[in-house]
Amino acid sequence: MTLSLSETTMTADPAAVFARLRAEQGHVAWVELEPGVGAWLVMGHAEVLALVRREHLYSRDARNWRLLQDGTVPPDSPLGPMMFFRDNVIGYDGAAHGRLRRPLDAAVDAIDQRRMRRSVARICDLLIGDFAVRGRADLVADYAVIVPMLAIADLFGLDTMRGHELLVAMQALFGSAEDAQEGNRRFEELLGAAMEGRRREPADDLTTALLHHPELRGDSEVLQSMVVMVSAGYHTTISWIAQSLRLMLVDPRFAARVRGGRLGVDEALDEVLWRDPPMCNMPARYALRDTELGGRAIRRGDALILGLAAAGHDPRVHGGDPGAEPGNRSHLAWSAGPHACPGRVPARLIARTAVETVLNRLPGVALALPAAQIPLTPSPWTRCPAALPVTFPTPDRISGGNP
């Protein structure tokens, strides 16, 4: 029976699933995306690099997907928002991709990191101040989903209410369930409204910068550039923060950091990028001709999923233990090649500030349930904790006052 891609993200032990797949099929394994729809999951570190660096063999353009061309995948498939062609930087290769990528790189390079760090720290302090007096919180719902939401909304000139609406839309989009198409529609609608607002009233934000970039041709390209930047940075940073907090609270090597131990926030952030990267499975590349990868015969039009989490567990890279080499950043969490994520620096700034602030503001923080009971948000693409309930001393108890 073919393994479902969701089984690699929803399992309690991804490493065991990857090891079984490797034993059965090697470093490139056939998996099921939805009933009757299969794809190759590329699990080897070297194989992922070969895939993303060979645009002449493997295209990012989903119009080359054979199962979409022949109608096996219907137009209303829940896979659509993540896998169908988008008329933006993600959908193109070569010179067209380069033209659409340059405005994104310029926008990221123009971010004032000091200003952003102060803004993120202020957001974190305000959120923690709201729940610190309770002595308990859900570090996902009360914190991890809100920090990047407000940080990225601020970069694009979006207010808090619109940021919350964007979050709801993107949770549907990334879930690849029945509401994925509606989530995608609402997501683009909200960004389109922000774009129109900045056309009337320009400001010092990324929306205005994209509207005025000379290489973007018309409203559609501006909108789709916003779609890419917000979606790529939003949900993935939530996952990075949540997984890093989970690791620091449950793993003895990192839990000691809360009490002054030797491994700290940067090591935790890096290990998450190896073990449970923000995008565990990245869609997709499409074979332009019959070829071979990892000893498997790839047919023209086949879809290939980048197994970024699986590549992090490749025993050929580090003996199967991603945590054995603190500081090693040769993971593929950001992918590689022309389509590598451009936002790794601001993403790390947000994640590091968010995790550090929890540890500094909530001494004695501890999980309120066994680690094995931490739920996951359903998705074939990400592996994000759905909740991180914690307890901690309230400020009056820390200072020695009476409750």
Automatic annotation (TrEMBL):
Family stated for the protein in its record: Belongs to the cytochrome P450 family.
Listed transmembrane segments: none
Protein name per UniProt: Cytochrome P450
Provenance organism: Actinocorallia libanotica
InterPro entries cross-referenced by the UniProt entry: Cyt_P450_B, Cyt_P450_sf
